[in-house]
User: Fold these one by one.
Assistant:
Number 1:
Amino acid sequence: MKILQLIKEEVVPLSRKQNIVLMTIIACIFQFILFYAPALAAESVKTANAQAFGQDTMITNDSLSKDAVMDAEAAKLSPVVSNAASSSTPVASSSKSVASSSELTVVRTSTHTMTAYNSEVGQTDDSPCITANGFNVCKHGIEDTVAANFLPMGTKIKIPDLFGDRVFVVRDRMNKKHPNRVDVWMKDRPSAMKFGIRVAKIQILK
């Protein structure tokens, strides 16, 4: 207002009508500067942020697209590897099982008293895990070993009435007072005691 008064009184002496027009023009100029300039500044800042965001988005999209391409290529390769692994494993296991079942045939059968034992000094000797032929049943950990005095070491047998199709191998010997008995090795004492004494038919395989 002081500037307007200065212009009115000292710089440009104007009439009342001209003074009103001049004040209106000056007011419009100040209004444009005070109100539209901040809006333009905010708009320019918004535009700059949008451009920066757009660049970041482009970079992110580029990185995502590269990652997507790499994932797609990996996906193309992985089924080949997995299919190869899955196809090779069953073939090997199936061929092994077929070979073992086809090679073993029953040569004779006989009936014997059956007992069970486990790896304890009181039931075996000072090295309870080692059988008469030097086999470590504890390390092997599979209940497929029998002791029998009337069969050669390494003879394979089945006891179908008690163990179904499980194949046992003669790896141990019994006390000489049991010339015709078959003693089945088991992992723990409770299982051996539960087995007790039974009579069953064995199939000698070859």
Number 2:
Amino acid sequence: MKFYISFIVILLCSCSSIPPTDQPINRISQNATERQRQLSQLENWNIRGKIAFIQPEERSNASLFWQYQAKPLKQKLNLTTYLGINVLSIESKNNTHSIEIDGETYQGNDLEELIYNLTGLVLPSKALTAWLKGIPYLYHDTIEYNAKTNLPLSLTSQYNGHMWLITYSNYHNVNGYLLAKSFTIKQQDLTIKIRINQWNT
């Protein structure tokens, strides 16, 4: 049974409110092979920003905090309203995932399925841990690079039986890692927009 929770309606903070970037893409460059090798080793990070889920008949927005550690797997992901009210909290340890929503806690071994069953939202959380860095999650993921900077413009992936397209912009140098701060993620009628205010590596 799906619980279409209240944050689908009440999360009012807009992704467009994020301040403009301060380092244009044409001022930085990196060898594509070296970049992928470097970022494959970036296994601990956290981000703060905004996320929007856009579908033909509805749109929901939230503030986003995501803390990730690969080995052993630990992560926390929180979505909050513009008033700071936490409406969705995820915590993972190895293969056990807990979601707190509307004051109730649910557990499961498949995070993406758990999110969908509880909220109706499609969030490719496993693949996003790589896609947000602009590197492949699956070996057959393909990347299109900017001809001048060699930084990713887009990534295409056949993930979980669906074709995903991720486009990148607004790159910044974050402690030596060249990371995008603006993402558009599309799969059929679903568009997910992520704007990152702060990367911590």
Number 3:
Amino acid sequence: MNNDNVNSPAAGDGAQAWPTVVDRDTWLARVDELRIQEKAHTRQGDAIAAARRRLPMVEVDATLPVLGEHGLVPFLEVFEGRGELIAFYHMWYDGWERQDQCEGCTFYNGQVRELSYLHSRDVTFATVCQGSYEESVAYRDFMGWDVPWYSAAGDSVAALLAGRPRAPGPLVCYVRDGERVYETYWTSGRGLEAMAQTYSLLDMTVYGRQEQWEDSPPGWPQPHVVASGGAHVRTNGRPTAQVSRLAAEAELRRS
């Protein structure tokens, strides 16, 4: 959308900017123009995925111990017998209150819910928490998540994430050949947006993510600043997804 294609102040309450109102044929023509860019973007994404499938891989120690629902098990068990594994390394701070835990990991990890389609492709998804299993799995249960959950603190997580230093909360892909395990790809930062349909959906809306880094027309609401502290994914000091669960938890305690 061009910056000169904006009405500001808006029709309605006059408090915010709105796109220009046009007739339907004009609007459809502009959508068709944008669709050309969208299709090019899709094809570029396909090309990047094809290149990703051609990366070499590196072996990791399949016997490294991780702690899960069934106690201490080798990392190989996280595959649940499937051929591939996507593992999200969730940051955790032992002894900290729920509201102080990582809002970014909560934002991304909480949006991976339906695993059946991954399983149908012989792929397992699991969270590997970088902290206490007992504390962190209680957080998972409070959040209402049901993804497989493990802890790999200390030497195990250091070995699993060996090599180039990685930003917090990496998403890592593995493949196994029998009892041997290989890392094929990893990403972090904005690469984690693959986990978050929230951002994909917001990107389709007229105001987008409403974050100040975005290229939006003048007057578009952009109250959210992406910076340290994660305020853009916090509400009243808590990771946003916690807020709707507080009343339910209080009601459960009263019953």
Number 4:
Amino acid sequence: MVGTVVNAGAVLAGGSLGLIVHSRLPERHRKIAFQGLGLVTLMLGLSMALRTRNPVILILSILIGALIGESFRLETRLESSVEWIRSRFARGSDSRFTEGVITAFMMFCMGSMTIIGALEDGMGKGADLLFAKSVMDGFASMAFAATFGVGVLFSVVPLLIYQGGWTLAGYLLGNLLPEAVTAELSAVGGVILIGLGLNILELKKIPLLNLLPGLLIAILVGLVWPYLGLHG
């Protein structure tokens, strides 16, 4: 878990610096920096999605995961929880608190480095990948906090739960997950990142949290696919 703890610390440090800069940075500078981050997010998501080895698994994971997420209204439930946190602990914060929590969480947790790094950490292969991710997340949190405010700092709570969960999965599963399955996990995460880029650029509002079950579906379908006698 050391990698996840360091990652959370980097987000808190970067976000705190972003809050300090927030009042001193002109709006036009914050806007262009954030738009640049949105474009980079699109690029990262596309590069990850194109790594899929089986587009059918990717499509099934996204579609089935979306239906499950929508059925359980994951995004609506989390937004309600975040709003409750804001009312309790962050009264007087700007109106973008909830958006900041969710956007930062999706950015920090949907990359292949999150999944693979956490799995490797749990498997005892070291946390080097998460340490490198921590540096990038620290800088990204500065940009997010300068735009969204204090909500970015609270994103470490779901980050610890989500990334820590993958670390625990790595500890329990060991080397049971084939490389092909982790590739599909990264591809699904890439598609979600593309959606996040669209949200950041305000081109389309997509309830991305409802797509998260697709990550679990990718594991299940990826594991049973070789036994179905199909090729993709």
